[in-house]
Amino acid sequence: MTTEQTLKDVKKSPGRARKVGLPATAEVAPTVPVIPLPGDAQAYGAYLSFLALVARSASSKPGALDEIDPNETALLEIVILRWAKGAPMTVRQTIAMAHLGSPATLHKRLMRLRAGNFLQLQDVAGDRRVKQLVAGPRGIEYIESMGRHLLKAKRSPSSGRPAGAEAP
After folding, report:
1. Please, what are the averages of pLDDT over each run of 10 residues along the chain (168 residues)?
2. In this structure, are residues 120 and 114 in contact, taking their beta carbons and an 8 Å threshold?
3. Is residue 119 part of a domain?
4. Would you say residue 67 lies in a domain?
5. Tally of structural domains, the chain
6. The CATH number of the domain where 115 resides is what?
7. What pLDDT is attached to residue 147?
8. Which of 22, 32, 101, 149 could form a disulfide with 17 if both were Cys (CB 3.0 to 4.6 A apart)?
9. Domain that holds residue 90
């Protein structure tokens, strides 16, 4: 295979440059296709702005979310949502949520969230054996941070496309 033929193949398949030992140059770099967004472009823009703000915030200042993984974040959000509605979950209810993992895995995640002060245990009046999960100081900090990002994304004008994407 000639070098010219290889460059043509690389333009078709950028991953091929690494396979054949060619440097990835601007000449053969792929362009990012712009996908037309069906539906409500303003809603897309708001959510994409929110994601960009969260990503930028996470990369600029390491903080609470660096300590917990996405599965723990999902668990934290569910528990905090129930707590905010005035119906805190018990530990037993939480570890029974099979869609988030096995009981042992969920218990381990709860222990990590408690150790990081994202969640705290609260006794139920009348039954000391039952423990409810409530937001801890860092859990409240997480809610406030996400809320600020949402408000900022809502205020920022957006075309409904991620930064750097151009209209077709």
Report:
1. 48 49 48 62 73 70 67 92 92 93 95 95 87 93 87 67 45
2. yes
3. yes
4. yes
5. 1
6. 1.10.10.10
7. 87
8. 22
9. 62-143
- The type of residue at 165 is A
Q: What confidence score (pLDDT) does residue 32 get?
A: 53
pLDDT for residue 16: 45
The set of residues, in sequence order, having a beta carbon less than 8 Å from that of 15 and lying 6+ positions away, is none
136 lies in some domain = yes
Chain centre distance of CA 85: 23
pLDDT, residue 124, reads 85
Residue located via tokens 């408000």:
151
Residue 53's pLDDT is 76
Query: What pLDDT was estimated at residue 18?
Result: 47
Query: Is 133 contained in some domain?
Result: yes
The token pair that represents 156 in the structure block: 């920022």
At 106 the pLDDT is 95
**Cα distance between residue 75 and residue 23, in whole Å:** 43
| DSSP per residue, the chain | --HHHHHHHHHH-TTHHHHHT----TTTPPPPPPPP--S-HHHHHHHHHHHHHHHHHHHHS--HHHHS-HHHHHHHHHHHHHHHTT-PPBHHHHHT-GGG--HHHHHHHHHHHHHTTSEEEEEETTEEEEEEEEE-HHHHHHHHHHHHHHHHHHHS---SS-TT----
